[in-house]
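Q: My collaborator sent me two sequences in one message, no labels, and asked for predicted structures for both. Can we handle them in order? The first one she listed is below.
A: Yes, handling them in the order given. First sequence, followed by its structure tokens:
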Amino acid sequence: MERAERTKASAEAVRSRLPDDDTIYDLAALFKMFGDPTRAKILSCLQIRDLYVGELAEILGMNDSAISHQLRVLRSAKLVKGTKEGKEVRYSLDDDHVSKIMECGLTHVNEEK
């Protein structure tokens, strides 16, 4: 088989296994959520334990409004969830996948340290 034929066959084999464009777009949007340091800090806090907005604000040295805004963004991306407790909402990671993504990312960035 000539090189051009091998290249074409190889490209087609890879192309046929790629996720569709909508899935790739959704994946890119998911990783974009992790691209903001404040959101990454909030997710790191919630890996340790479930917290209220005020607790997150105190830990991160920010105001409640800024934390609430980031939590809305994270909630819309299905990375965090809130559980109403009286007049307050306790936030947690949405599921174990979020924790695994964080763990893999931290392992990767700490490889050379």
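Q: And the one she listed second?
A: Here it is, processed independently of the first:
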Amino acid sequence: MNSIASTLISILSPETAIISWENLTPTQQHHIHQGIDSKSQPSCVIYPHSQAELAAVIAIANSHKWRVLTCGSGSKINWGGLAKNIDIIVSSDRINQLIEHAVGDLTVTVEAGMKFAQLQEILAKHHQFLALDPAFPDSATIGGIVATADTGSLRQRYGGVRDQLLGITFIRADGQIAKAGGRVVKNVAGYDLMKLFTGAYGTLGIISQVTFRVYPIPETSGTVILTGKAEAISQAVRTLQSSELTPTQADLLSSKLVNNLDLGTGIGLITRFQNINESVQEQSKRLLAIGEKLGLHGVIYSGNNETDLWQRLPEQIHSHVTKSTITCKIGVLPTAAVEIINQIDIGLIHISSGLGLVRLENQDQILPLRNLCQANSGFLSILSAPIELKERFDIWGYTGNSLAVMRRIKTQFDPQNILNLGCFVGAI
């Protein structure tokens, strides 16, 4: 047993699981090494059982100036920059209880380690759902979803993670427990810590509890697929956006993604309507008619076929990765989205926000695509990639002028640089 693990065992309760690095399986060690630099040799992985224990661990780490990598289940441990000089890994995976589900108020409060799929099951019993669609929904934890600001096509109707947060509880770098927001749907004046922590990759504090707004499950769902030439798809997008149609999800699909999903030929527009049955049928028919007038191939998916399609779509980006696979988050002007998707091998772009996901198989593809995105007022940030690439490549590609402000905020929240150092923009 190494000295750090021995110190923690002597201080923490016997219920807290502390696993020395040498007692991890090679598979577990390899998985962790996907998120840390090659020079790091963590001493142990710690699984606190409560917020209080989590706070105690961070307080100890702060007093000893131990560098900490925080995670939930580890499903996104390989996203973003590599954490530097890590001494211990702290997981919130076992801090996973339902705190309160206010059914009538349409809010839910859970601990950060709860799995996304488990939360959806709880909400579904009351015909409600959390309107997020993150990567790895079966294994992703709520805290990890917030820390990486991870949602997908549902942002068309419901916005991003920041838009659905009502409150958070977090552990500061000094081990103190702090709160922001509340448990009711209202706006308050003041500095919005919830938005600051969302997408900060655990560099400002450790999210331990979250309150979300939730929504009633729609009565019916239907998805329209239009495929064909870029010019016709572009016109279909413009017509859809200027119409009275109200999709919950609407994405552009690259031609190879269309082909992989056996949806047709050319690039695609996938649009989902969710409402009462009559509304879904009418909106689906109207969009199908728009496509037909433009010479596009159209088909409507419903029932299990539709559910299966929306599950397989993100898997084309995130699943079955090889040693050389690179996944990226991109953003472009929505008006340039069709032009960009037409030059992408495997990827999708949300038509309302211009945000999207791309899968690359060759690192030589990164800079040309990043330059193309930046030329259209956008960005390309690498989520997952081989460690060797991340150690010598600019993961975030940030070209804005806020890096100095970000570093000052990091210093204020984590003056000793112990939390997830290196994971965020500018190696923060």
